[in-house]
Amino acid sequence: MRSKTLYHILYYRIMKNGKLNHLFSLSTRMSRIALDILFPPLCAQCEVYLDSGVEPICKPCYQAIIKNSALICPICTARIANNKRTCNHSEKLSAQFPYLLGAAAQYSDPIVRSCIHQCKYEKVHALTKTLSLLLITYAQGLDPQPRIFTTNPIIVPIPLHTSKEHTRGFNQSAYIAQAFAHAMHFPYDELLVKCINNDPQAKEKTHAERFARMHGAFAIPRPDAVRNKNIILIDDVSTSGATLSEAARTLKRAGAKQILALVIAKA
Ligand SMILES: [Zn+2]
Ligand SMILES: [Zn+2]
């Protein structure tokens, strides 16, 4: 565990516990003061001292992230103008990707990659705040705004398998999706469950192998909540698109109408 991230881990825990009683209760405030003295708040990226200690990364680090500004085709990553696909893919391929994709940044961006990694594997949950802000700012800046935004779409996170969520302690995509739904005033609902614990295998190199592994990975316990609904799927990273594709196809089979997938980063 790196010391620069200790502050954010402890701060997150204190605030989370504090929220159960009173957000600014005396014990919460005292804990924060003690925390600031014991573990000075440092940027989770460059380790500069943070004045407020509330944001997990400093302003210059956040500003240095190269942000995207358009939706993309999930098949060829071509920019989509006016929220309509213009590239000509085969019917079979189009059916495999029944959604438009939005990515706030690229996974190759070192700050984005490090934030996602620390959030997922080093338990710096406070970084979901930075990642959510990135996604909300991206969505609100899309010009023109996707038409789906005017249809009160349901925000649905990509779920983890229960045993994986138990090991990791939380699902970062669900945190980001909740913050996104709150900021955009859209309903949030965990409509998908992961019924197969299928971690990516290093030996799976091809597109077809990755897609085959995801086959049947998701279930929808309440199909009535999906039928005729527009849905925005939220995940942290999209690599081959196999996860989003399987989730979107599962929702389509249950009668979902339009699907937009939004991720923090496209790899
Ligand atoms: Zn920094
Ligand atoms: Zn395309």
UniProtKB/TrEMBL annotation:
GO terms for MF: glycosyltransferase activity
InterPro entries according to UniProt: ComF/GntX_DNA_util-trans, PRTase-like, PRTase_dom
Domain of life, source organism: Bacteria
CDD domains: PRTases_typeI
Pfam family, one: Pribosyltran
Domain spans labelled Phosphoribosyltransferase: 210-264
Keyword set, alphabetical order: Glycosyltransferase, Transferase
Protein family according to the UniProt entry: Belongs to the ComF/GntX family.
Name of the protein: Amidophosphoribosyltransferase-like protein
Organism expressing this protein natively: Candidatus Wolfebacteria bacterium GW2011_GWE2_44_13
Taxonomic path: Bacteria, Candidatus Wolfeibacteriota
